[in-house]
Amino acid sequence: MDIATTATTPEGNPELADAAPNPHDHPVIRREDYAPYPWLVPETRLEFDLGLDATRVVSKLTVLRNARAPEADSIRLEGDGLELLSVKVDGEPANNWSIDDGDLILPLSADAHEIEIATEIDPSANTKLEGLYASNGMLCTQCEAEGFRRITFFPDRPDVLSTYSVRMSGPKDQFPILLCNGNMVAGGEGDDGTHWAEWHDPWPKPSYLFALVAGDLVANSSTFTTMSGREVVLNVWVRKEDLSRTDHALRSLETSMKWDEEVFGREYDLDLYNIVAVSDFNMGAMENKGLNIFNTKYVLADPETATDADFDAIEGVIAHEYFHNWSGNRITCRDWFQLSLKEGFTVLRDQLFSQDMRGEAVKRIEDVRILRLAQFPEDAGPLAHPIRPDSYREINNFYTATVYNKGAEVIRMMRVMAGTDAFRKGTDLYFQRHDGEAATCEDFIKAIEDGAGLDLKQFRLWYSQAGTPRIAARLAHDGDTATITLKQTVPPTPGQPDKQAMPIPLKIALLDPATGTHSGEQLIVLDRPEQSFTFSGHSARPVLSINRGFTAPVVIERDASGEDLMLLARHDDDPFARYEAMQELSVSHLVAASAGALADSARTAGEEGLSQAFAAILDDEALDDAMRGELLLLPTDTYLFEQMANAHGRADPGAIHAEREGLKALLAKRLADKLRAHYDRCTRVAFDYENGRGARKMKSICLNLLASSDPEEAAALAARQYKSADNMTDRQGALGVLAGLDTPERTHALLDFYNRFNDNALVIDKWFTIQALSLHPHVVEHIKALAEHPDFNIKNPNRARSLYMAFAGNPGAFHIADGEGYRMLADFILALDPINPQTAARFVTPLGKWKRIEETRSALMKSELERIAKAKLSRDTFEQVSRSLEA
Ligand code: TRP
Ligand code: ZN
Fold first, then answer.
1. What are the C-alpha distances in Å from 331 to residues 324, 396, 491?
2. Which residue's CA lies nearest to atom 10 of ligand 1?
3. Looking at residue 24, what is its pLDDT?
């Protein structure tokens, strides 16, 4: 018998455990090195003997030589942390195999073989939550990107497509429900209280889309009839106690299916669509074929326990995973460098869906805010990479805002340039041409070129160049002619010192300075370093409205005066442009003030201008509350940080925070009556999930502003709102304000919230987050105490993030001047890395700001990165820390 034990992960191998970090343990993988796999695997049969502490897996692979690849005399099957029990080739025990870096290597001589491999794994010990793991007594899988190799030896790469048949068996009392991809084809009772099920997925798929779930679950179900009249059973599987909070997820799935038929012509292709919610999950959700697995956060909601924003996020993520069935599953990625092929496109699809569901203007503003909060800093920092990266050590580190959100913006630009109808012709061609294939970004671009009739030759630079382009815009007026001169620069990024000019599609309009009207929007495409565009028929100097609808993911630096911005903020008919003008008014004032570059008189004038602009928004009765709320939001500290670093080389988060809070207090003081009137009006709007969302948003915005000028009044209002709240949006909004105030109401409300929702993990996550985000002077002490709270659990990603991601995003805590915040984050990363490297590595990003921050904090941050680098790290965290220090 060939019985061998191989432990290939650092945690499983005592010899590796003490080794110093060594880059050679974590080789660089390069896009240019792609080679097709030498073998095809048309069929995969898997048998699972399920147990929480020990699961046995027998895998039977049919392999054939791949005529399109160079000939090989062996096959390499990837493995990670597996205990190998036996290997057979063509029915005979094999003894000529070897293990190389965890992978199984088998010599093969003929053109076709049957390989049978038995392995054993321990799902309970799997704290990485990659592969097969236990969560709350159930078993589930997460295979993207390279988790399948932690279940069995396999060519674990997205260009090897196989048809899967799966048999699973296990104790019926523990795992009454057994789920897998595709359709259930057989099932029955076994010995000793076990039962079994067989599943077959007719669609060939890569291993990262494999999924299995076994547990004590109940479903909320419905059916959907597709455009060609097929009936599909839809199930949302959860623990019994969560069933009452699954309606919104199920409705969202139905609407997504309908929308994808209508807008992209895409029909679902199985008779069954299962969604399972699990509470231990590294990311948001996963699009496994026919069996999506979701973080509970993106499934469970009712008005008591979930905010309006939570409802929206669920709708968006359900749609995202559903849309992957075509953009991801039917057409998958050739290799992981092509990740944006499925993610960028699918994010765009889910954004367009949500725009259609709840209004284009506000959704667009929200998406741009996320881009600026998460992606712009990434593009400006040491981890910057193109949407199609050229190299990586650990692919988990490239599930980024750049690949996802900038990826979506890049495809959105194609759509803007083509127009909606021509773009649809392009996507139709893409789906038709590449159905069933593992494709590349280049395939997508070519299909859009051919189908939509666009020339994207130069546009391809968006796939290879990192960095956020900056556009300087100048307007000159002479006679009746206005001339816009645009200059683009793409800043240097790691490994890319020099950039070429990219095509940048900008929707513009020229507004009449007296009326704020214009005679038509135009699309111009800047595709050279510098370019001028002239427009006649303007007897008076017009006001430039540019990047309307945020048609390009760039930073615009325009020479607009305060009056120009006021005009745009009040009268522009493009809602995004209005929002942008309000942001710019605040940004220019706050960045100058933070840099100490504002003379007293300029400060006074700026404050006066801003007060007027905000008053005008509060007085504008034509606005709906959702949009009014957007216009009243001050730019975030993070966005101000980026703008200050762009303008001055380094940013000072302490100064930014103080100036921003100061401005809030000033505006609130001057506008107290108006804010109070809106607050009172909005309080009278009765709760209804679909309606009154704008009113609820306005309430918390007004309350937040009032809290900075009149904490006592705000505390009273917030306490009243908290006590009378009949929904989580109002309750959380009130608690967020109270958490920042040093009042007795704070303690009462936090205690009440905890006791009220003690049995609901997602709401207790909110309880941690609200405190970690607070403006309270003792927030750092609070966070330290929360880390010791019995409900804090570093092994649960939602809980870990609820405290530490919120903390890292709270400038008053994270950037505290003595560096204590940086120390706390580094300690946390070091504690989490051995448990869950994928999630730990995501916390390195905030420390990567060290190059663009003022000198004192810069040195403190850098020394924490160096301290982390000295430890024995996972590949995930090693890569992020070393890139952060290198750049
Ligand atoms: N493909 C998933 C999505 O965006 C996300 C994903 C990638 C993921 N890797 C993961 C989810 C690891 C959970 C764990 O839809
Ligand atoms: Zn996705």
1. 9, 21, 34
2. 144
3. 61
* CA 399 / ligand 1 centre spacing (Å): 8
Alpha-carbon torsion (425, 429, 435, 439), positive or negative: negative
177-180, strands of its sheet edge to edge: 131-135, 138-142, 212-215, 177-180
Q: Hey, what CATH class is 470-560 in?
A: mainly beta
Q: How confident is the model at residue 23 (pLDDT cuts 50, 70, 90)?
A: low
The CATH superfamily label for domain 758-887 reads Peptidase M1, alanyl aminopeptidase, C-terminal domain (1.25.50.10)
- In whole angstroms, give the CA distance from residue 115 to residue 718: 66
SS3 content of the chain, % helix, strand, coil (to 5): 45, 20, 30
Which residues have a Cβ under 8 Å from the Cβ of 714 and sit 6 or more positions away? 703, 706, 707, 737, 741
Determine the Cα–Cα distance for residues 549 and 415; give it in Å rounded to an integer.
Answer: 13
Strand partners, 219: 237
Beta-carbon contacts of 490 under 8 Å, excluding residues fewer than 6 positions away, are 465, 467, 468, 469, 470, 499, 500, 501, 502
Domain edges within the chain: 14-216, 332-464, 470-560, 671-743, 758-887
* The ligand 1 atom nearest the CA atom of 324: 15
* pLDDT confidence tier of residue 25, bands split at 50, 70 and 90: confident
Contact 702, 682 (CB under 8 A): yes
Three-class SS state of 289: coil
Question: β-strands 212-215, 138-142: how paired?
Answer: antiparallel
What confidence category does residue 852 fall into, taking pLDDT thresholds of 50, 70 and 90?
A: very high
Could you tell me the distance, in angstroms and rounded to a whole number, from the CA of residue 797 to the centre of ligand 2? Answer: 19
Superfamily of domain 332-464: Neutral Protease Domain 2 (1.10.390.10)
Q: Whose CA is nearest to atom 6 of ligand 1?
A: 286
- Determine the 3-state secondary structure of 737 from DSSP: helix
